[in-house]
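Work package 3, deliverable 3.1, input record:
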Amino acid sequence: MKQTPLEEKLIDNFKPGKITKDGFLGDDNRHVHDIIKADLLTLSRLGVEVETIADRLQYFIEEGKKGLETKVDLGDFTVQISWDRGLLPCPFGEPRRHHKIIAAVLNKKLSKKIEYSQLNVHLIKEHGFFLGKGSTFRLEPEDLVDVLNLKTP
Ligand SMILES: [Zn+2]
């Protein structure tokens, strides 16, 4: 993962109504860098790499695509994606655009479900950013490790 320094002028991108209606920070008052630092600390405590989580999330998106927006059964998991028209920029400001794909992954054994977007996967993989607390698409590192079966023995 590249650590992308966040220029102050980009901070606006994280606010509601700029890139997404709800923004990326929820009611979290911490600086983006502090949110990232805290979540990466949680992950290192759990012994799970950011890339491992991002790759797993991407795997489910790829499998979900095969179902063309119907539910795909993957044994212990189901995944269903929905795909909206258009592309989203990353709030960290690189030129790359991201498809508006939402994935819903259900861990059948745990009866626990997570929902995330393609942009979430990018934000986690490239920036270590799981969004601010209270944000609609905030993903708790603990929940991801749990639902995605990434716990180290
Ligand atoms: Zn980015």
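The pocket of zinc ion is lined by residues 90, 92, 94, 122, 126-127 (CB under 6 Å).
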